[in-house]
Design brief:
Layout lengths: L1 H13 L6 E5 L5 E3 H15 L9 H10 L4 H4 L7 H19 L4 H16 L3 H21 L11 H8 L7 H16 L5
Antiparallel strand pairs: 1-2
Length: 192
């Protein structure tokens, strides 16, 4: 019974991810939370898997994407264009993740830590694909949700393309999609 109780405690813990605000907005104008983002990228990964040239364990990709932002519970979300924050976000999120995973039996905590680190390092086809999806979905969301001319941070298309350029190393089709989304965002006035 002790094992199931620790899992219930973990469910209580991950409820906190719903309170972590991200920098992307939703259709109703509020900022999305990290749990919503994790759910969306996990679903999208299942939709786009045919556009990745390597065979994938999509179950592993899905789980990886559901866990990839769990370290934000205590560390918070760091905006992808915040270079100062990004320099320390990995370590902060790792410590946060360990605090959350300590609730689980050791073997499960270790398994999920390995999965999280694999995503962070991008050292498998599943991790590289998951990172691509994690980069694409905000582009789609931003294009759909933002009002015309909305660019409060004065982002340029060049800066966004540079940040997303890693996609072309693994999938030409998904890289073309990223470039089209950025081009449409420029037309809408969302990037200079």
């Amino acid at each position: 019974m002790e094992a199931i109780e620790s899992k219930v405690d973990f469910v209580k813990e991950i409820e906190k991810l719903k309170t972590v605000t991200r920098f992307n907005r939703t259709l109703d104008g509020r900022f999305e939370n990290s749990a919503e983002h994790s759910w969306q990228v996990a679903l999208v990964a299942n939709l786009f898997q045919d556009y990745f040239p390597e065979k994938l364990d999509i179950g592993k990709v899905t789980l990886m994407l559901l866990f990839h932002d769990l370290g934000e519970i205590y560390a918070g979300d760091t905006w992808v264009y915040d270079t100062t924050g990004k320099a320390v976000s990995h370590d902060k999120e790792y410590l946060s993740l360990q605090k959350s995973l300590a609730i689980l039996p050791t073997f499960q905590g270790e398994k999920f830590t390995e999965l999280w680190l694999e995503f962070e390092k991008g050292n498998s086809p599943e991790a590289r694909y998951a990172r691509i999806i994690d980069a694409l979905v905000p582009l789609i969301n931003h294009l759909v949700v933002s009002e015309e001319g909305y660019n409060p941070d004065k982002l340029t298309a060049e800066r966004v393309l540079t940040k997303k350029a890693f996609i072309k190393e693994d999938s030409e089709i998904l890289w073309q999609l990223a470039k089209e989304l950025i081009e449409k965002s420029v037309e809408k006035g969302l990037y200079d």
